[in-house]
Amino acid sequence: MLLAVPVQSAAQERRDHDRARAALEAGQIRPLSDLLAEVERRFRGRVIEADLERDDTQWLYELKILPPNGRIFVVELDASTGALVRSRGPVQERVPGEAQPRQPLR
């Protein structure tokens, strides 16, 4: 019985991946990489987790952000437009003209 759980989880992940790819190819969602750049310009902190979910008729990116003060917050974006749908936690938006920290070279 314990062995069935990872198999179901892997199969579900594969279906989710296929659905996300189909939505991207159909133009129903924007690429996550485009939205990540916008989010890190708009909010203080770094995205540490991203999920794509289908909420009835709408695709949503749920992004968990770790700001410098360590108090994690979550933003949910419309995956087709990038518009903020809702947020949870102590959201920290950058003020206009605020410099964005440099990313370390990889």
UniProtKB/TrEMBL annotation:
Pfam families according to UniProt: PepSY
Record-linked Gene3D superfamilies: 3.10.450.40
Domain PepSY: 32-86
InterPro entries linked to this entry: PepSY
Protein name: PepSY domain-containing protein
